[in-house]
Amino acid sequence: MSYLKGLKDGSPIGLGYFAVSFSFGIAGSKIFSWPLVTLISMTNLTSTGQFAGLQIMADAAGTFIEMALATFFINLRYSLMAISLSQKVSSDFGTVKRLLLATGITDEIFAVAMSQKRVTPIYFFGLSTLPYIGWSLGTMVGAICGEILPAMVTNALGVALYGMFVAIVVPQMKVHGPTVFAVVIAVALSCAFKFFPPLSGVSVGFAIIICALVASFIAAWLFPMQNVNADDEVAK
User: Name one Pfam family in it (predicted).
Assistant: First the structure.
């Protein structure tokens, strides 16, 4: 598996990341200068985690602990992806290479990598290159536009952020009932933290953490995943 093949397979992801990160750049430009916003994306590759962190930074009461916990729980799924992907990597994918390339594990990159029979370091590096460039470049362009365009235009472009979350969540809700249940719980809790006086004093960071954990726990408790092996035994 060559670098060029990875580059080719990652090109559609890179184009998609450019569009999404443009919205992040627009949002980030309201808080930081464009070089700092771009640096955030260059040192991270996680859309939801970055947006959550940005929201906490925008809240004057947000703390580093809240930001760390929120991004930890939001990005925890990448650890599970890494464990699954480790079963497909080639023998020359040593510890150092895994540590260096681990930042490139995202939902889309993981999906493409898992579709391969075997994943080599050079292929995964190629697969991650354009998504990383697209994410960083899109952020930079969005942040620069956020500084020079009129507020009316940047506010309109910021709507794309909500469109991104709708595009991520709605398709899954259509085919998976428990996801609908989890989303409804999260939305209800979020509204409670916003409008219910006893909870409205909770900072944005901890509100995000609590909503995510409670919704996930209740959905997992009420709709547990069945053991695949057990199902196979029953079928036999």
Answer: AzlC
Residue whose C-alpha is closest to residue 142's, from 53, 30, 21, 32: 21
Can you give the pTM of this predicted structure?
A: 0.69
* 136 exposure class (CB count in 10 Å sphere: 0-12, 13-18, 19+): buried
Helix (H) or strand (E) holding 9: helix 3-28
Cβ neighbours around 112 below 10 Å, total: 18
pLDDT digits (tens, 9 = 90+) for 99-127: 888 888 888 888 888 888 888 889 999 99
Cα 30 from Cα 33, distance rounded (Å): 8
Q: How many CA atoms lie within 13 A of 92 on its CB side?
A: 8
Domain positions in the chain are: 3-168, 176-225
CA distance 37 to 32: 6
